[in-house]
Amino acid sequence: MVKESRADKDFQEEKFFYSDLYNYSSKLTEGEKEVLAELEEVLKNDLHPVLVKHWHDATFPLEEVQKILDLNLMDDPRLLEGREDGYISQLFRGFRSYTIAKTDPVLGTFYTQNGGLYHECVRLGGSEEQVAELMPGVRSFDNWGALCMTEPDHGSDVAGGMATTATRDGDTWTLNGHKKWVGGASIADMLAIFARDTEDGQVKMFYIPRETEGVETFVTPEKAFFRSMPNAEIIMKDVKVPESQRAQKVNSWKDVAKILRNTRSDVAWLLAGATAGAFEAALKYTREREQFGKPIASFQLIQEKLARMAMNAQATLAFAYRLAEQQEEGIYKEEASSMAKLHNGLRARETAALAREVAGGNGLLLKYDIPRFFADIEGMYTYEGTHEVNSLIIGRYYTGIGAFI
Ligand SMILES: Cc1cc2nc3c(=O)[nH]c(=O)nc-3n(C[C@H](O)[C@H](O)[C@H](O)COP(=O)(O)OP(=O)(O)OC[C@H]3O[C@@H](n4cnc5c(N)ncnc54)[C@H](O)[C@@H]3O)c2cc1C
Questions:
Q1: Residues within a 6 A CB radius of ligand 1
Q2: Which neighbouring-strand residues pair with 167?
Q3: Which distant-in-sequence residues (6+ apart) come within 8 Å of 219 by Cβ?
Q4: Probe residue for ligand 1, chosen from 120, 383, 384, 405 as the CB with the greatest number of ligand atoms within 8 Å
Q5: Domain boundaries along the sequence of the chain
Q6: Superfamily of structural domain 6-140
Q7: Residue 365: how many CB atoms within 10 A of its CB?
Q8: pTM of the entire structure?
Q9: Most ligand 1 atoms within 8 A of CB, residue of 386, 393, 401, 404 to mutate
Q10: For the chain, N or C: smaller number of CB within 10 Å?
C-alpha cells in the first residue's frame, strides 16, 4: 500500500526534485525548469522502459538516446536567455547531469562524456578557431566526442606515465599508443586524445575523428558493472594528425589539470543524481513492500536507513551545487572539485548499499532499479580520479606535501 507522504505533497506544490528538501533547484530559471521537465518525461517514457534489457544484454540504447539528444539540451533558446557568453549556466549543466543520472548512471555518463568532458576539452583546450569549428557539433551532438586519457598500464599515474606518444615532423604529428576505458569511444565521432610529445616530454591533446586511418576501437568485453556503456579501447598505429588538430591551448599537464577539475565537478553532479536515484528507488520499494502486515517503510530501522539515504542525496547535491555556484563566478579550484568527487563517491556508494539492503532479496532484481545503481555507482566511484587520488590532491592542498609517490 502506498501512502501519500508530506514529501509527496511538497513535491506537487513547490519542489522540482523529490530528494531536494533544501530546494536548491529553486535557483534554476523557469526556462531551465521547463527544459528539465521535458527531459524527465523523455527519461520516464522512452528510456526507463528499456534500461533493464540493455543492462542485462550489455548493449547501449542508442536509438532511444536520440530522443534525449533531440531535446537540444545545450542549445535550446530557453537556456541561453540572458547568457552573454552564449553558454548554458553551470547550474543547468549540473542539474542536466543530475536528472539523467537519477534515471540511469550510464546514460548520465554518456551524455556528460560529450556535454561535459569533451565540451571542456574543446572550450578550454581549443584556440578561438578550433572552438568555432568544433563547438557547434558538440552542442548538437552531430559531431560528438570523448575524452581519451587512461591507458591499459597507466591509470592513476597517467600524468607522469602516459605512454602514448606524439612526434612532430613539420606540420604533421604521428601518434602511437593504446587507450582504455573511454566511455563511448567506439561510437563517438571525435576522440580527444592525450599524448606525450617525444620532443619536450609534455602532454598534448589532439582532436581526431574516430574514423582516421590507423585508429582502431573495440569495446572491452565482459564488464560486471556499467554493463550498458560501450567503454572502449583505442589502438593507434602511426596515426597522422595535422598541427591544426592539436589543441592549441594544451601545452603541459597544467593545462590538462584545468580541464580535469571541470570534468570532476561534472562527475560530482552525476554522483549526486545517482545517489538520489538509488534513494528514490529504495523509498518506492519500502512503501510498497509489506512484511508483518505493514509496509516495511513503517519500521523504525528502515526509516533510519531511508533518512541516511535522503541525507546523502541532499549532501551530494549540496557539494555539487556549491561547485556550480563558484564556477559561475569564475572560481575553479582543483581541490574543491576533488573534495566534491571524493565526498559524493563515498555517499553514493553507501546509499546504493543501503538501498540494496532495504530491498532484501528483491534488491538483486534489475526490475527494481536498485542493483543497476548499486553496480554502476561502483564504476563512477573509480572514474575521474579514484578515492585515493582525490584524497591525495586534498592532502597536498592542506599539508603542502605531495604524497602520490
Ligand atoms: C566506468 C568507467 C568509465 C571510465 N571512463 C573513462 C573515460 O571516458 N576516459 C578515460 O580516459 N578514462 C576513463 N576511465 C578510466 C578511469 O579514469 C581510471 O580507471 C582511473 O583513473 C583509475 O585508473 P586504473 O583503473 O588504471 O586504476 P589504478 O591506477 O591501477 O589504481 C588501482 C588502485 O590503486 C590505487 N592507487 C593508485 N596509485 C595510488 C597511490 N599513489 N596511492 C594510493 N593508492 C593508489 C587507486 O586509487 C586504485 O584504488 C573510466 C573508468 C571506468 C571504471
A1: 113, 146-150, 155-156, 181-183, 226, 231, 379, 382-384, 386, 388-389, 404
A2: 174
A3: 186, 230, 231, 232, 233
A4: 383
A5: 6-140, 145-245, 253-399
A6: Acyl-CoA dehydrogenase/oxidase, N-terminal domain (1.10.540.10)
A7: 12
A8: 0.97
A9: 386
A10: C
